[in-house]
Amino acid sequence: MYTDSYLMEKRGTDTLILATLLYIAMQLAAAVLLLFAGDGVAVQIVISAVCVSGVAILFPALLAIVRGGAKRYGLLWPGWGVVLLSAAAGVGIFMFSTGINAFAMTAMEALGANPDIYAQQIPAAATVWETVFYIAMLALVPAVCEELLFRSVYVNSWRGMGRWKVVLVTSAIFALAHMTPASIVSFFVIGAVLGLLTYETRSVYPAMIIHFINNTISIWLSSASFDSAQAEAIDNVSTTQLGAVLLAAGALVAVPALYATFRLAKRARSGAQASPDAEGAPAVHGDAALEELREQLTQANRRRTRRVIAVVMAAMALLNALVFALAFVQL
Q1: pLDDT at residue 58 above 60?
Q2: Closest by CA position to 51, among listed 66, 65, 67, 37
Q3: More confident: 214 or 277
Q4: How far apart are CA 292 and CA 79, in angstroms?
Q5: Amino acid 273: pLDDT
Q6: Which residues contact 61 (CB under 8 A, 6 or more apart)?
Q7: How far apart are CA 55 and CA 167, in angstroms?
Q8: What pLDDT is stored for residue 139 in this prediction?
Q9: If you compute the radius of gyration of the chain from its CA atoms, what whole number of angstroms results?
Q10: What is the pLDDT of residue 281?
């Protein structure tokens, strides 16, 4: 059990290093490819999905999962009750996070930021196949790839940190990795909910479901075409009023659904008669010198993990600061 815990944490840290390096390289590669992609939205979406979601995020995650085993990384079916509650929570979390973004964008514009830099308008889907394409590439692919890395690998690898520390750390990395300073608070909140859900249910599937629903609703609204009356009605509502309504409505939907999900997960853990895992297994005591060596290795590994996380977060924070500064460049 000691070996499992040690290797899990080390593998998670190694994955963070690899994913960070690939993320930087693939962002640069995508930028170069997009220069030659022309104005085709579909081609741009595919390039970003392959370079970022596929190579930079999915590849390191799968490498860790294959080496460590699917069950250790939360690839366990949580039950239909948890799945249905997660779907309901996804709707509430979308509303709540959108409310946060409304206040964040109001603050950015009040500071003199150029709102166009964060515009992510998607052309309205002309056919059913275009709708399927948007949902697959912009909702399903990110939901699966990002959850496998940020929740499946990172949360489960660093369980030794404790519930709240691992949730806060992985949520911060998740928020910074999106390189969207205006949405960093909402991404952090979403990451915290998904991280806690993965930690408590020991399954990554609820997080994938919520992530997918959140992205799908966002895509639908971004690509929706409104008639003049609808557009005028939307314009007449202030951003802060809309944000307040979305925050309240999102909380009313998400909180009960999440509470019920955690209750189901707790009941499932209490009723299960599984063997103890690395986190809860009793220590196997042996030679005192061997125990001391194990403790030294564990502490050295923990210090390495903290240093790597600190360096990665500092680098991503710097990049976010640069993106934030660009928002004030009037194009």
Answers
A1: yes
A2: 37
A3: 214
A4: 42
A5: 45
A6: 15, 19, 145, 148, 149, 152, 153
A7: 25
A8: 95
A9: 21
A10: 46
Tokens of 18: 């690899």
Give the residue from 203, 201, 191 showing the smallest Cα distance to 70: 203
- Which residue is associated with the tokens 């699966």? 144
Type of residue at 259: Y
Query: Rounded to an integer, what distance in angstroms lies between the CA atom of residue 316 and that of residue 181?
Result: 11
The mean pLDDT value for 189-194 works out to: 97
Query: Could you tell me if 222 and 98 are in contact, meaning their C-beta atoms sit under 8 angstroms apart?
Result: no
**In the prediction, which pLDDT does 116 show?**
61
- Please check whether residue 151 is in contact with residue 75, taking contact to mean a CB–CB distance below 8 angstroms: no
Distance of CA 269 to the CA centre of its chain: 25
d(CA 58, CA 146): 7
The distance from CA 101 to its chain's CA centroid, rounded to whole angstroms, is 16
Separation in Å, CA 210 to CA 55, 188, 261, 328: 23, 14, 12, 33
Q: What is the pLDDT of residues 147-156, one digit of tens each?
A: 999 999 999 9
